[in-house]
Amino acid sequence: MTRRPPRLLVRTLAVIFVTVALLLAAVFVVVTVTVRDQVRQSVTANLESGQRIFGAVERRRQRELQTQAATLAENPTLKAAIDTYAAEMRSGNDTQRSEWLATIANEIDKVAARIDADAVVLADATQHTMAAAGRLADRFPAGRPVAPSGSRGRQGLDGVVQTGGLFFRVVSVPIQLGEVSIGTLYVATNLDQHYAEELAALANARIAILSDGLLVASTLPQATAHQFESAVTRHPSDPTLLLDGESYAFRRLVDVGSTTFYALGSIDESSRTATQTAIGELAMIAAGATALALAASFWVARMLTEPVGQLSESLAQMSVSHDVNLRLPLTGSSRELDALTATFNQLMASVAAAEEQRQAAYMGAIRALATALDARDPYTAGHSDRVSVLSVATARALNLPDDDIEVIRLGALLHDIGKIGVPDAVLLKPGSLTNVEFDIIKQHPTAGARILRSVPFLVPHIPIVELHHERPDGRGYPHGLRGEDIPMAARIVHVADAYDAITSKRAYRGARSSGEALQELWRFAGTQFHAEVVGALATALPGVVSDAIEPAVEQAHA
Amino acid sequence: MMLAFVGLVLTTVALTHAQPETGSITGHVRLATRIRSPLPANVYPSRSIGRHDAPAAPEIRNVVVYLKDVVFRGALPTAKAELYQRNESFVPHVLAITRGSTVEFPNDDPFFHNVFSLSSAAKFNLGRYPRGQTRAWKFTKPGLVKVFCDIHSHMNASILVLDHPYFAIPAVDGTFELPEVPAGEYTVVGWHERVGERTASIRVEAGRPTSIDLTVPVEDAR
Prior knowledge:
The complex is a heterodimer. The relative contact order of chain A is 0.07. By secondary structure, chain A is of the alpha+beta class. In chain A, the strands form two sheets. In chain A, strands 2-1-6-5-4-3 form a six-stranded antiparallel β-sheet. A five-stranded antiparallel β-sheet of chain A has the order 8-7-11-10-9. Chain A folds into two domains: 1-321, 2-Layer Sandwich (Beta-Lactamase); 375-557, Hypothetical protein af1432 (Orthogonal Bundle). Chain A contains 17 helices and eleven strands. In chain A, 57% of the residues lie in helices and 15% in strands. By secondary structure, chain B is mainly β. Chain B has two domains: 1-34 and 56-72 and 168-222, Carboxypeptidase-like, regulatory domain (Immunoglobulin-like, Sandwich); 77-163, Immunoglobulin-like, CATH 2.60.40. Chain B is built from one helix and 17 strands. Chain B has one helix at 2-18; strands at 22-31, 63-67, 80-82, 84-86, 89-91, 94-98, 102-104, 113-117, 124-129, 136-138, 143-148, 156-162, 167-168, 175-182, 184-192, 196-204, 209-216. In chain B, the strands form six sheets. In chain B, strands 13-2-15-16 form a four-stranded antiparallel β-sheet. In chain B, a hairpin with a 3-residue loop joins strand 15 (184-192) and strand 16. The longest helix of chain B is centred in the first third of the chain and has 17 residues, at 2-18. The A-B interface holds A 70, 74-77, 79-81, 83-84, 87-88, 90-91, 93, 95-96, 100, 103, 125-127, 152, 154-156, 173-174, 176-181, 184 and B 37-44, 46-47, 89, 116-120, 143-144, 146, 148-156, 158, 193-194, 196, 221.
């Protein structure tokens, strides 16, 4: 069993679809790889810019805090109270100690109210806490030394203080009386979750704050933060760390004493969203491209297959109808197909011409045969031609189709071909025939049919030859068919044959006129002849004053 | 300098009348660099506004030498001292007076000043007043009085109010003299506002000067 090849349309679609799919797959792989690479770079760049921005903003913030604190430290009452208190204490005079301390505390409260800090702490000249105010003032008990770790810049101290279990970022300004420092004002911000979140928003990254390698605060998930705590101690110089199964890039934002602020960015997390976005967009493009490719390939395939299909359909029709005169229309879809069609049409034209020649040759041969047959009997000379002409005219009068008329023309010419087998003694006998002789004559339609059967080209004419002596009343020969069982072509030729026989001169009688012949035909209409055919013949007769009949009549009269 | 001179003259006059059996103490005060405090003193530039080119008084003039725990018999001589407000500072920075003395605070600057104190020996606030005006305060209790200006937070001065006239502010070269001190055993004090008292023992004999050197651990700015 052989498999049928796939349709052209399917093949075109498949090829285009596979091409598009391969293209998309390649793009997908490239995009995924590129996106991840770019995300890594962008995360790093983001951290870098975060580091820069953070550094700048943080420096500014600390400076502003310091400026603010310095401005607030320029408080005459505060200074007077501190200095007076210190002088009195040196003199051993502490009777009014609480009064000065209350004044100091009051002034520190005012400072705390004007500055955005978790605690404002006043330390004396020996760095021991004198007073504290603010939300977390209780972490700075009076009398305790304040011991910040950090760097002393031009502007003062920027450091970290650990006290009461909390870490504070502090800036400090000295309280100067003239050229002498009589104390220090600390502005402390708690390094808590809130602080880390603020930093994270500022740096646009995750934040972790470590002091002496220990986690102080972070915006990372807790488990990740603890992994970071141990990982950064072990690999402080790695560009990325694997935390909780995710790859993180990190950077030191700033070091304050032994406290370090880190910014972290998850490469995986960022690349996931970026890849998803890219793939989402790619999917939309892919869907669009596929739809477009499908439509385009469908169109292309149709452009190819439709004219081809049209062409093959026309060919199939042609081969069924054996009509060589059909011409294929130009599809106009492509030059190649039109060339093919034109070539085919030329081929068909030449085939048609050859067929016409062949037909003409056949006709000539058959006409020659019929003429030769008619010539055996001088009385029937030209009989076949005349019957043919009459039959065609009658058929026209009956409005038969052209194809049938052509069959009738040839069939009528050949209708007595069977008489070839009738001996001259019988055929040319001047007297009346015996029953035996008449039986011989009655065999000529069957004999004619037998002759034609061997020529495929003449098969359509067999009924005319075989049945042109059948009668509507069933008393005809050779089969005795009745009425409507007799083909129209045979009926027409029967009537035309009879008319020509009546109007022809015979050895045993003279030629009779057309009018007498019609009278005779009408007399037997319905029994020997079909009435409608007789009517048609009568109608057609005036137009058939043709050369085909007149000479025969004249000859008959001569 | 002028004030010190006035003070000394007054003291000498008083002693001449009351105690004939006296000797004098002469000496020299030396400023030594003290140990630095944990924080640097000058992380900020001075926040005073105005003329900083005005010559600051030498640090030695901020030292007061006096006898400790002396009981003075008789009427304590008083004086009228002046503490100027000049170039956003009190001049002189340190003043020593006897109890009952009055100090005037004239304003020499072309802007307002204020004078107030929170000290237990004298609590006062003389209010704000413009150039050319002055206010006075009489100091009736002995002790250290710190004086401030509530407009200019860096301005401050110390007034040492003493119950006796045996005190002096050393000259620029560090020398001082306490004349007409009754003969006896004394504790001599070199006082500075940032270090408090530095003491030494001395025996004064009538009719002759006794000499002593004092060291006060204060940084000499010069």
